[in-house]
Amino acid sequence: MITVPFEARRFQSTAAYYLRYRIPYPDKLIDRVAERSSLKRGDHVLDLGCGPGQLGIAFARLQGAAVTAIDPEPEMLAEVEAGAGKAGVDVTVRQGSSYDLGPDIGRLHLCVMGRSFHWMDRPATLEALDKLIEPGGAVVLFHDKSILAEPDWRGILEPLGQTYSPERNADRLLRKSKAWAPHEAMLLASPFRNLERIGIVSEYTRDIEDIVGRVFSMSSTSPQALGDKAAEFEAALRAELLAAAPDGKFKEVVEASGLLAFRD
Fold it and tell me: Is the dihedral of CA 205, 209, 215, 219 positive or negative?
């Protein structure tokens, strides 16, 4: 099975961009996942590979969940603490990764992951979670998929990423190749093999600053990945975005989804 090698500081330079420029998961999606998983106020939710804590903060804010957020990046955990403070909720933060899943975390009702499962040893992670998630609980993989982008800024980004960040771009292409087992296959081979998906489709309008910020929030084109090519990359990206959208506006249709995985 092909995996992406673990790199603890992969997202070190993205923290400042992630929460501000990534499209958030809709509150309606959080509500529906909580309802389907029978989440009750005070239930323990683990936000694994939490980044700046979009999911964990949302579950604490909307559902009153007791949330633990784990990430290897101290910069990301600082964003979690700041975001939780702004939202007026308590979130317990822990520096670590999927390799640190143990009984000290406590029993869980849900383990939620937002675009982070692909960085993990997926079978080992699911095996560890099987020991922590209570009966009736679930693993929930959150994702967003671009349905439409006008103009197509991703088509602009791809060749630039190949030029300015070839090694990181190779990791991204690996996860899109036939050699990469989809998450659904990993779940079906685990105790969490009863799968359902909930999706919410939304429309957004973004400007060039939003697109540039989102690009810098990606590990393949982060300031860290680009290194001394970052300024040249940004100038090329901005020029091509402006040429594609002289008014500076980009319309996107995005499906945000939660893949719920229950035991049989």
Answer: negative
Domains of the chain by range and CATH? 14-263 (3.40.50.150)
The pair of structure tokens assigned to 31 is: 């509500």
- Hey, which residues does 138 pair with through a beta bridge? 110, 262
138: helix, strand or coil: strand
Side chain identity, residue 258: G
Q: Maximum distance among all alpha carbons in the chain? A: 55
- Alpha-carbon span 82 to 88, nearest angstrom: 10
Distances (CA, A) of 88 to 61, 84, 85, 97, 129: 8, 6, 5, 26, 29
Q: How distant, in Å, are the alpha carbons of 82, 154, 157, 181 from that of 177? A: 37, 18, 18, 9
Please name the residues in contact with 185: beta carbons below 8 A apart, sequence gap of 6 or more. Answer: none
Could you write out the DSSP letters of every residue in 23-88?
PPPPHHHHHHHHHHTT--TT-EEEEET-TTTHHHHHHHHHH--EEEEEES-HHHHHHHHHHHHHHT
Q: How confident is the model at residue 6 (pLDDT cuts 50, 70, 90)?
A: very low
Nearest to 219 by CA among 166, 168, 167, 161: 168
Per-residue pLDDT tens for 69-121? 999 999 899 999 999 999 999 999 999 999 999 999 999 999 999 999 998 99
Rounded mean pLDDT, 145-166: 94
